[in-house]
Amino acid sequence: MKKTALILVVVAVLVAVVYYVDKKTRLQPAAANMTSPDSAATDAAGKPAPDFAVKDLDGKDITLADYKGKVVLVNFWATWCDPCRVEIPGLIDMQNKYGSKGFTVLGIAMDDEGKSVVAPFLAKERFDVDGQKLPMNYPIVIGNDNVADKFGGLFGYPTSVLISPDGKIVKRVTGIISEDEIAKAIEDLLPQATAKPASGD
Fold it and tell me: Which pTM was predicted?
């Protein structure tokens, strides 16, 4: 009888621990009224994109304001994220096609270990783009929970936010983006963009 009671207590403790760990590690939306990726995307569209300060791999401060006048696809990703790896070749291709026309992907790496895992990943990994093995060719910065919270929290990786040249959120996508859909949205926005690097003013 005592043995059964002890087993039940152990099971109850384990269930409580699993529940606590799950609750603490699950990605939560910052706003209470956001209950799904779809509602986050709908609520965000048309609103000003939040500015943020992060560091690139050289330790230089980077802000969203640095890209004023450009079409920016903010892409939250991580080196361990398999869907992110699937998406990267398309992002490289978009950067190649539109980079000189006033567009950039801004990759925000969300690895807990930061630069220590992101820098070797960028140095080593090559991705198949139209039969060529290419490195990631767009700016990569080191993200944190504060940046994610400014965008209303993340429901998973990858998460991409398309921002217009005047700094408004056009589209938010949780999961792998549709390249055709994003390409059309980028092309619609490019006439408003300036091809020169923004001064950050």
Answer: 0.75
DSSP 181-199: HHHHHHHHHGGGS-SSPP-
For residues 151 and 106, what is the distance between their CA atoms, to the nearest angstrom?
14
CA angle 80, 81, 82 (to 5 degrees): 110
Superfamily, domain 2-192: Glutaredoxin (3.40.30.10)
Report how far residue 107's alpha carbon sits from residue 45's, in angstroms, rounded to the nearest whole number: 20
Tokens 């699950």 belong to: 26
Contacts of 175 (CB under 8 A, 6+ apart): 37, 83, 156, 158, 159
Stretch (H or E) spanning 3 = helix 2-25
CB 187 within 8 A of CB 164: no
CB 44 within 8 A of CB 169: yes
- pLDDT in single tens digits along all 201 residues of the chain: 555 555 655 555 554 544 443 443 334 333 333 334 444 444 567 899 999 999 999 999 999 999 999 999 999 999 999 999 999 999 999 999 999 999 999 999 999 999 999 999 999 999 999 999 999 999 999 999 999 999 999 999 999 999 999 999 999 999 999 999 999 999 999 988 765 544 444
